[in-house]
Amino acid sequence: MKPLVRLVVAPHPDDEVLGAGGAMARWAREGHSVQVAVVTRGRPPLYTDEQEDQCRDEARAAHGRLGVATTWYLDLPAAELDTVAHRELNGKVGEIIRACAPDELYLPFPGDLHLDHQLVFHSALVSARPGRDGSPRGIYAYETLSETNWNAPFLTPSFIPNHFVDITGTVEAKLEAMALYRSQVRPAPHERSLSALRALATLRGATVGLGAAEAFITIRTVT
C-alpha cells in the first residue's frame, strides 16, 4: 500500500491531539504523511502574544512527538471566526487542502459546541467538494472532549461514530503529546485531563473489541 497523505484540520492548537493524536502517531509510524492545519491564532485582547507564542512552542513539541510531517498555520482570529467572512475562511482552508492534496481529511465535528469548530467544518467541506483537483477521497469527523460532548441533545447532531482507529500501540504517544500542551491540559477530573483522554480511548476501544481506539464519523469515502 502506497503512503497516504492525511490532513487533520484543527480549529485551535490541541484539537488535533484530542481528536486524532493516537491515530496520527500510528499513521506516522506506518510511513504515511501526517499534516496538521491549525486554523486560528490567539490575538489581543482575548489572548496575549506571550500566550500564543507558548502555544506555538507546545504545538511544535507535540507534533514532533507524534511524527507530524508539516504543520500549517492559517492565523485567523481564535474565538472570533464568526467575524471572518465565510468566503475568506473557505479560501484560507481551501489553500491548505489544495497545497497538500490529502488522501484523507479529518475535521472537527459540526455538532461541537464551539462555533469555531462548526465554521471550520463547513468551510473545509466546501473546499473538499468532489471533482476538484486534490479532493480527498475520504473525509471524517473527530470528537473533541469538552466540545463534542456538550452539544444540546435532540437540537444539534449527536456524535455517533462508525469508523474506529486502533490506537492500542500509540495511546501513550497521544497522552505524551497532550502533556506537552502544558497551557491546555488540566488536572483530573477535567475533560482535558490525561486520565479523561485515556478513559475515552479505553471506552471507544471496548466498543469494538480493542484495547484503545479513536472514533470518527465517516462523512464521505470514494473507493
Overall description:
It is a single chain. The protein has 6 helices and 7 strands, in the order E-H-E-H-E-H-E-H-E-E-H-H-E. The chain is an alpha/beta fold. It has a single domain, classed as LmbE-like (Rossmann fold). Strands 3-2-1-4-5-7-6 form a 7-stranded mixed β-sheet, with helices on both faces. The longest helix has 18 residues, at 49-66. It is globular, with a radius of gyration of 16 Å. The model has no long low-confidence stretch (mean pLDDT 96).
User: What's the CATH topology label?
Assistant: Rossmann fold
Largest sheet, strands/sense/barrel: 7 strands, mixed
Mean pLDDT: 96
Please give the number of β-strands.
7
In the sheet with the most strands, the strands line up as 3-2-1-4-5-7-6
Query: What's the gyration radius in Å?
Result: 16 Å
CATH uppermost class: Alpha Beta
Roughly what fraction of the amino acids lie in strands? 15-25%
Uncertain residue ranges: none
Write the layout of secondary structure elements.
Elements (H helix, E strand, L loop, with lengths): L4 E6 L4 H15 L3 E9 L7 H18 L3 E8 L8 H15 L3 E5 L6 H13 L10 E5 L20 E4 L4 H9 L14 H13 L6 E9 L2
Parallel strand pairs: 1-2, 1-4, 2-3, 4-5
Antiparallel strand pairs: 5-7, 6-7
